[in-house]
Amino acid sequence: MESNWKEKAVKYYHDGLGISDIALLLDVSRQSVSAFLKSQPGYREEKERRKKENARKRRIYKTDKQRSYRAGQGIPMLVTAETMKREHELAALELSRERYH
């Protein structure tokens, strides 16, 4: 029984589950699972790979969140030919008014 949970723990870990999830599935303490996995070859490499992947995902999330904040501030996200033309016309009217009147 003891080696059975250890084999399953290694398989689950390589499938992407976290230590807490593995402990719940196998009904073994989180500390036991963690200590066992740390003794396995390739644990450190897998941990670094997960860390890099999570950092990449967080960067994407933060970029999207910043874009949504900017969109909420009333800054138009789409600039079309019509909006540029209208903006130019308003600026020209204002400038001509300042210069001659």
Description:
- This protein has 101 residues and is mainly alpha-helical.
- It contains five helices and no strands.
- Helix 1 (2-14) runs antiparallel to helix 2 and helix 2 packs across helix 3 (30-38).
- The longest helix has 30 residues, at 43-72.
- The chain starts with a helix and ends with a helix.
Roughly what percent helix?
Answer: over 70%
Q: Characterize the biggest β-sheet.
A: none
Tell me how many strands there are. Answer: 0
Mean pLDDT: 87
- In whole angstroms, how far apart are the ends? 93 Å
Q: Rough shape?
A: rod-shaped
| Count of helical regions | 5
Keywords for this entry:
101 residues, mainly alpha, 5 helices
Task: Reconstruct the topology from this structure.
Elements: H1 2-14, H2 19-26, H3 30-38, H4 43-72, H5 81-100
Short overview:
The chain has 101 residues and is an all-alpha fold.
